[in-house]
Design goal:
52% strand; Porin; mainly beta
Amino acid sequence: MKKTLLAAALLAGFAGAASAQSSVTLYGLVDAGLRYTNVSLSNGDGATNFGLGYGQQSGNRFGLKGVEDIGGGNKVTFVLESGFEPGNGTLQQGGRIFGRASWLGLENNSWGYVRVGRQLNFATEYVGIPVDPFGTGFGQLNMGAAFGVANTDRISNSIKYQTPNMSGFQAGIGYAFANGATGVYTADAGGGASTGSGYNFATSNNSRQLTLGAKYANGPFYAAASYDKIYAPDSKGEGASISSWNIAGSYDFKVVKLAAGYGQTRDGVILGQGGGGTGASLAGSSISTVNGENVFAPSVGTNSYIVGLTVPVNPVSRVLLSWTMLTPNTNMKDAYNAQNQTAYNLAYTYDFTKRTNMYVFAGFMQNVGTVDTAKSTQVGLGMRHQF
């Protein structure tokens, strides 16, 4: 009897060890509430909307993530993540099944990771999410309104490498053979548009993207830098491309966490997720209102700024504040009467549990998309649950 019990215990132990080496997790997030939006121009054009708002603090999603230990400290990892609209059940990210993320990777604590598929660029991963008090959420309130390349920029058909953590320092490099982004080209950048569809191993016929990043974290201090270069398809000729670099950081003083950042984008505009805000769509003269994720324009350039604060009220609630600005270069001002875009943002979140919280927010933006007199005001509240 004792031998039988011992054997059963050993078998149970081996089964537990085996299952611990390989796992698949289902996870997700549901975010819904109410939102009021008002956009206007000085000529009287505008719109006011009030109703249900979805994915306000964070985009709605469900996904699968897995890991398998294959020995020697090496692990195979994957993430398949889908974005959806709770109000009607439809898929987001252009109807992609796994539009938020779809990648397979190999990693090791001693040499880092390699991942292949659809994934975030390093500007979003290193600069946007960690530095922005709004975590690239809350619609027009997040820093992506000024830092387009850090506005949840997902690149398809990409391969990324990240170093291991070396005393708080990490760096990464990635390249997308066909980033999947739509593009619009001014006359001096080849003209026309591209849909961003398809790869078919015809790399030169697609928009490609190089992404670089470095970060350092040590206790309350965090700093990061990123660089992205987006190349137009060769069919556009003239080697049209957009470049963008950013540097940002934060320091947690416990009573308040201060964040700040600066960036430059040249030879075009990177709109990112939800780029070209609703206010900008009321006017057709600004280069940033063109309907595309990336606008290739050799004469266009912008500078980006952010100052943000996270103020813990108590262990379960915090106040978020930020100011962002996007300044056009002289060519944009002359050609499109572009003006400085400024935004003032405020939010409050309260955690009921580790998985569920409520929030309220308000944001005001002047000269949306650098369009003169375009204004946008957003106010909302909602609840978010993670599982």
